[in-house]
């Protein structure tokens, strides 16, 4: 289920133009395919009553649980200052993401917009553009809580599959 969700959400994001980085989409789809393969191995092991296959399935599922639980806890543990620092580093390192953010959120600049900088937002025509940092911080806090909660839910769902 999780694997199909990952593949579907990545395809949806690229289809609607929400994500322009093919690397991000490729990684999400690869993780989805990996999880689907692991689920298939578990299914074959259960149908054939193959103990070695089931043993490796359980070991890989344990590793997936540890990674998923760790990432979920990290998402929920980030405070606003750490989120702001991460956003600023990402903002200064990628021009394509900056252009996408300015266009999608209709904002210019990170904390302050300088007139000699380029901006892809429509608000530039009216010269009343808000900086992107407050908008991104609001969205990132929401997304991190959502992703952390969903990740915890699915990680404990995986553990309940062992029982």
UniProtKB/TrEMBL annotation:
Superkingdom of this protein's organism: Eukaryota
Subcellular location per the Swiss-Prot or TrEMBL entry: Membrane
GO cellular component: membrane
Alphabetized InterPro entries for the sequence: Tetraspanin/Peripherin (IPR018499)
Membrane topology summary: Multi-pass membrane protein
Keywords attached to this entry: Membrane, Transmembrane, Transmembrane helix
Transmembrane intervals: 27-47, 54-79
One Pfam family named in its UniProt record: Tetraspanin
Primary location: membrane
Protein name in the entry: TSN13 protein
Source organism phylogeny: Eukaryota, Metazoa, Chordata, Craniata, Vertebrata
Gene: Tspan13_1
């Amino acid at each position: 289920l999780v694997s199909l969700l990952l593949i579907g959400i990545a395809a949806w994001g690229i289809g609607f133009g929400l994500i322009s980085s093919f690397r991000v989409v490729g990684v999400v789809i690869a993780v989805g395919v990996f999880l689907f393969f692991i689920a298939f191995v578990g299914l074959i092991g259960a149908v054939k009553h193959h103990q070695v296959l089931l043993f490796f399935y359980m070991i890989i599922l344990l590793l997936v649980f540890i990674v998923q639980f760790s990432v979920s806890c990290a998402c929920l543990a980030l405070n606003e200052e750490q989120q702001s620092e991460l956003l600023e580093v990402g903002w200064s390192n990628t021009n394509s993401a900056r252009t996408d953010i300015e266009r999608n959120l209709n904002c210019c600049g990170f904390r302050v917009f300088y007139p000699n900088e380029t901006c892809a937002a429509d608000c530039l025509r009216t010269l009343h553009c808000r900086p992107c940092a407050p908008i991104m911080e609001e969205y990132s806090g929401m997304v991190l809580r959502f992703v952390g909660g969903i990740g915890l839910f699915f990680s404990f769902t995986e553990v309940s599959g062992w029982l």
